[in-house]
Amino acid sequence: MKVSTQRLPECQVLLEIEVDGKQMERSMDRAYRKLVQRIDVPGFRKGKTPRAMLERHIGRERLLQEAIDLVVPEAYNQALEENEIDAIDQPQIEMTGSEPLSFKATVPVRPTIELGDYKALRVPREAAEVDEKDVEQSVDELRRRYAVHEPVDRAVAVGDIIRASVRMVVDEREVYKDDDVELHLREGQTIMLPGFAEAITGAKKGEPLEVGIAMPEEEGGQLAGKTVNASVTVKEIKEEKLPVLDDEFAQSAGEGFATLLELRDRLRSDIKERVEAQAEEAYREKVIGSLADAAGTIEFPPIMIDREVERLIREQARNSGVEVKRYLELVKQTPAQIREEVGPAASERVRRSLALAELADAEGIEIGDEQVDAEIENIIQQATGGNDEQAERYRRLFDSEEARASLGNSLLTRRTLDRLVEIASDGAGQKAESRAKPKAGASAKKTTTTRAKAASTTKKSTKAKKTETEEEDS
Question: pTM value?
Answer without folding.
Answer: 0.71
